[in-house]
Every structure is written in structure tokens, then in C-alpha cells.
Design brief:
transmembrane helix, 7 helices, 0% strand, membrane, disordered C terminus, Putative membrane protein
Length: 169
């Protein structure tokens, strides 16, 4: 419904509201759970798509793009590391998408909700911290930057790809 409203498809949003309101009245808990599952799948699916698409032969890996924004042209060892790190993040997002399903089928009752309620976010933070330490061990003789600088570079990379040109407007 949020997509319909954001895309200004008012007829679709009205139809979705008419269909969803009775569901939310009669089964509020189930609709809340379904909504959380959809948001989880869409957000991680988008990250999987973005990181995975950047691994195509005609593209540059996303982590390499961010690193080159911060450091300029990359050395060969750093380019290999950023390519491998992009692959690892892609695998992380794929595993994060599959984990709730596997826990639902194979785990104890209710454990499938752990990734949706912050477990994946905690694992991503842990992964970032561990990767930061590994990066400093693997890449020597290099001036590493803070996480704040990296996030600012990622945001500027995203903003530059989202800017429209005069021909687009």
C-alpha cells in the first residue's frame, strides 16, 4: 500500500485499502507479521539486488566504487579485496533472506522471527566490525578511514547515481 501511495497510484491504493482493512480488523496479529515479513524481504532483497548486480562483468563491485570514492584509484590488492567483500556481502544478504524460512521449517517454534526482530541487523553490525579488523590485517601500508567517512562516501555514491540530468528532466 505504501508503494501505491508513493507512486501516486491512488486507484490501486484505494483497492488495496478496501482489501486489507477487513484483514486487519479480523486478523491484526497475522497482518502485522505478514507486513514485517514483506518489509524484511523487500529491504534485504533490494540490498541483495544492488550488491549482486554490481558483480556483473560490465559493472564495478559496489564496495570498490565506495572505496575509490574515498581513496581514489585502488591498488590491485585492494581491488581484489573489495571485489571479494562485495561477494561476501551478497552472500550475507542471500543468507539473511533464507534464514527465516529455514528456521520456520527446521527450527523450534517461533525462532523464525529472530532475524526479523533485529537479529539480522545485529549480525550485519557484527560482520562490519569483524570485517574492519580483518581489513586492517589483510591490507597493509594503507591509510584506512573511519566508518563515518565510508558511510559519507556511500551516500555520495548513491546520490550521484540518483541525480537526474537535464535530458532526464
Amino acid at each position: 500500500m505504501a508503494f501505491a501511495l508513493l507512486s501516486l497510484h491512488l486507484k490501486k491504493s484505494a483497492v488495496m485499502a478496501i482489501c486489507l482493512v477487513p484483514l486487519t480488523i479480523y486478523w491484526p496479529h497475522q497482518v502485522t507479521v505478514a507486513d514485517g515479513c514483506v518489509l524484511y524481504a523487500v529491504s534485504l532483497g533490494m540490498m541483495l539486488f544492488i550488491f549482486g548486480r554490481s558483480l556483473l562483468p560490465s559493472r564495478q563491485p559496489l564496495v570498490a566504487v565506495v572505496a575509490s570514492r574515498v581513496h581514489g584509484p585502488l591498488r590491485a590488492d585492494i581491488a581484489r579485496y573489495t571485489h571479494a567483500l562485495t561477494i561476501v556481502w551478497t552472500l550475507f544478504f542471500a543468507a539473511a533472506l533464507i534464514t527465516p524460512l529455514l528456521l520456520f521449517w527446521l527450527g523450534p517454534t517461533g525462532t523464525w522471527q529472530w532475524p526479523l526482530s533485529g537479529g539480522t541487523f545485529a549480525m550485519a553490525l557484527l560482520f562490519m566490525l569483524v570485517e574492519s579488523g580483518v581489513r586492517r590485517l589483510v591490507i597493509r601500508n594503507f591509510q584506512h578511514v573511519s566508518l563515518r567517512t565510508t558511510v559519507a562516501a556511500f551516500r555520495s555514491t548513491h546520490a550521484s547515481t540518483m541525480r537526474t540530468t537535464t535530458s532526464d528532466a
